[in-house]
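Lecture notes, unit on protein representations.

Consider one protein chain, 279 amino acids long.
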Amino acid sequence: MSNSPIIYWFRNDLRIHDNPALTMALSEGNPVIPIFIADNIWFETSHPELNFPRTGLFRKQFLAESLADLDKTLKKFDRTLYIFKGDTAKILKKLVAHTKSSKIVAQREIADEEATIEQRVSRDMHLELHWGSMLYQPDQIDFPVEKSPFYYTRFKNKVLSQAFTPSPMHSPAKKELQLLSKISLPPDLTKLNPDEWLISKKGTFFHGGETNALQRMEEYFNSGGAATIQRHEISLKEPTSAAFLRHGWPMVLYRPEYFINICKKQKKGILRTQKASIP
């Protein structure tokens, strides 16, 4: 069995826990090189005639905080997150050649720009993609995506009728995380220091990072956050949590399965408390 390293390309999954793609990369037992690339397209303007930036200041700060937190987590295992800036395909090609990696593993994305980058990478390299940011994957439902009902309620009812029930994945054990490997880098690659994106924290309520996300979620539930589950439906009734979800926090830091699992546990706890209080 080849012991060639695997490059793990972090994207919108800047977390260790409940990360299917990372879990798959580590499960092979080969050295895994963790990297993140800020693609050049992020720094272009979305409407050249209006000069609108694709990535605003607060988005940069959130991303910088998330990267710093992930790197801090890896450093607990004496490992490093390698962060680059530039053309993703070219950077990965240089890294594959330099490290003699057998393949690149990453989370599959849906958005057009991310999908375009995936296509560029897969032209010349072995790119293995895994779903990881949705409750039901397209291959876990019995109808094609293009046949999805137009209205959300019909779509929801059709999906909830599926026999499959998703659940969160385990977090990698210490032994697995020690497979993450350190490397010497090619001299012609541009490394990125996320600290360049940090601005004043005044006026910013939501901070990036897996640690902040888990702490925020724990505080929400421990404070008696109102989570009502009826046939897998979740209704959040705390304004700050609703805003937290709107800011894209779950997409980066955990999968819906993880959140739903905690909601179910809290509901069971509430029911047990109510039964115990009945005279």
